[in-house]
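Chapter review: from sequence to fold.
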Amino acid sequence: MNRIRGRLVRSFVTGALAAWAAGAVAAETADAIFVDGRVLTLDAKGAEVQAIAVRDGRILATGSTRKIRNLAGPQTEVVDLQGRTVLPGFVDGHAHTALAVRMVERYLDGRIATTPSVAVLLDKITVRASAAPIGQWLIVAGSSSSQTRFTEKRLPTRAELDRAAPNLPVMFLNGSHEAVVNSLGVKRLGFQPGVAEMKGAHIELDADGEPTGVFQEGMMLFPDLRIPAEDLRRYYAQVVPQMWNARGYTSVYTLAPLDQWPVLRELAQGAPTTLRYTIGLHADPGGRFIPAGLEAFALPASVDPAWYRLAGIKVWVDSDVPMRGGAVIEPYAGDPGAPGGHGILNLTQPELDALVLRTRRSGLAFLAHATGDRATAMALDAFERVQQAEGGPAAPGTLRIEHFGEFMLGPGDLERAKRLGVSVNVQPGWIYTLANSTIENLGAERAKGAFQFRSMIDAGLEPGFGTDLTGIVLETLDPFLHVWAAVTRNSDAGVFVPGQAVSVDEALRMLTIWSARAQGEDAIKGSIEPGKLADFVVLSKDIRSIPAEEIRGLQVLQTIVGGKIVYTAPSQR
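The token string follows.
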């Protein structure tokens, strides 16, 4: 019977097998074996096996069920996979995990999925404001590029927010890089006439020099920037592992503000959770508040890097193309002469060069957020200069570009990134959520250069994957959305540049071994091979044999971390 009843069958070796084991236990007895499955190892050869043996949290052996049963002893746990497909645990290579939980738990939902227009948004704000304490911030999580997706094709205005919530400071987030506040919000944030920049934020002024309420790159002004320590402990120890494990993730590269480091350092010295954390720290977008002595952030030697590893420093070279803030060489469509038509740069080339060099010399990776072609060129220039200064190509995961080529690529970027050993991280699901806004922002012809995953792979780049989850577009936590979008090129604008489609195997490698390699961890995770961490996921159907259109409907039945089942789908319990 090909259906798992209750949960995947688990039993201890008994009867004849136990009698045999008592007299002839294998030299290396497994703690657990997983048998009778279709295990896609995603190793270099793309091997498929039936079974996996686990010992001390790592993979002891793989092979046929008959071979792996020989590694069972009297105390070995046996898990019958009943023909189900097994993949390596998914590696989320870029996520803002604590912020995502914060948004889900506390902020008003203004996402396109639930809020199709400015009118609906304002109604929601009015209702929430009527029951909120006077003077308390009301923060609304809106989708990226709301100005192209709301029915009115614009953002809410300061005056509209005033009318909806006259007694509260209100902030509407147009994704993570742009916001609109009402008049009380302008006052609370300290915006002044004629002041266009404050703490790294770019403040929009009207013709009379008055703040319009719109500002970009306002991370250092965010009212909820410093999340209380007790909330962070709960997020990282409980909520984040539960959210990510339920979708097949066994590892996440979490990007955290510097002020969260003490809590992460404290948790790293305690018992591990059910999710492995690779950590990237950041300060303000331009990196001006990154401390000089990065070595001070090192974790104690007692911390197991398989569970917690401080890996890198992140800096935003530019803003974000969906809100027309990505730094571009040619101006945005329909905006040839307007101020800011070429986007936003958060730092100069010399500043970027110095930060990359300092980070590399500290032994940490440098993660450069770059969404526009001008910003990508700056990151590549900085990486090339640091290699000239230090000598030798970059080790995998040490020089990275986040969102590389998602919206556009410059001439020679692919070849140059490959030659310099640059690791890249992408979000394939954005094809589905952001193709239409990309067309509107860049124009139909230039937009054809977006999401060129086929070209990246053909150039030998092996793009790693990340959800980039902030809590704003919750759909992107679904790993199968990303596989489906990369394979089918289905988007919110129809089938988008189908020639850039990738195979199912390539899309799965983006979620697993390539993502692990892009953070310098492919020696221990990302594929099912002896010696690697025993992290894998059991699927509801064989992802290779179903029609591509059905991939998005796949479900995770179980997630295994370190050889232990940490998540079982409700339907299997």
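Two observations follow directly from the output. The longest strand covers residues 249-257. Residues 134 and 167 are 6 Å apart (CA to CA).
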